[in-house]
Design brief:
188 residues, mainly alpha
């Protein structure tokens, strides 16, 4: 596998990180940049580590994970998306949703949800040497970090310039990502 393949794979795996970071940036644009960097670091770390874990456990365990990974990601993102939509409508009624999408717990759950595909993808590197695997892990982690940081920055930027129901839009985006993951695994 060449470096171009690894870069394209990294970009594909980072798209969910970008979307979720973008959503979090829109919903909580007032959050300090340090928390957005922490989310991006977590996304990058989880993507790289899960890719490495998928490679390390080889075909037996990866086959079992691949049977349910899409359902896990879909369930997590559906739950979070519905919660965001409900919170968005509550905030219109003057209630504070109180949801912190940059809390440690939220960052870990979202990092896990976005990296389940990386775990299953690790299997394609089983026949590769350790240098190739390390290059893939580092590239996937770095690209996921950059896409996450860029997504959060873009979300904050757009939130400050546009007026709309950010949490409702964010919830719809998360549900859309979950549906995309589920349909890709069930139909393709």
């Amino acid at each position: 596998m060449g470096i171009l393949f690894i870069i394209l794979l990294a970009v594909a795996l980072a798209m969910d990180c970008f979307s979720i970071s973008f959503t979090a940036g829109i919903v909580q644009s007032e959050v300090a940049g340090r928390k957005r960097v922490m989310m991006a670091l977590s996304f990058g770390l989880f993507q790289g580590v899960m890719l490495l874990a998928g490679w390390a456990v080889c075909k037996n365990f990866a086959q079992q994970i691949m049977a349910v990974d899409h359902w896990l990601a879909f369930g997590i993102l559906l739950f979070l998306g519905i919660k965001m939509i409900i919170d968005g409508f509550r905030s219109d009624k003057g209630e504070n949703s109180g949801t912190d999408y940059y809390s440690f717990r939220s960052i870990i759950v979202l990092s896990l949800a976005t990296s389940i595909d990386a775990l299953a993808t690790g299997i394609i590197f089983v026949g590769e040497d350790i240098k190739q695997v390390c290059a893939a892990v580092l590239t996937v982690g770095l690209v996921s970090f950059l896409f996450s940081a860029g997504g959060a920055w873009l979300g904050v930027y757009l939130k400050k310039r546009l007026a709309f129901k950010a949490e409702v839009l964010g919830g719809i985006i998360l549900i859309g990502i979950g549906i995309k993951i589920l349909t890709e695994h069930l139909f393709f």
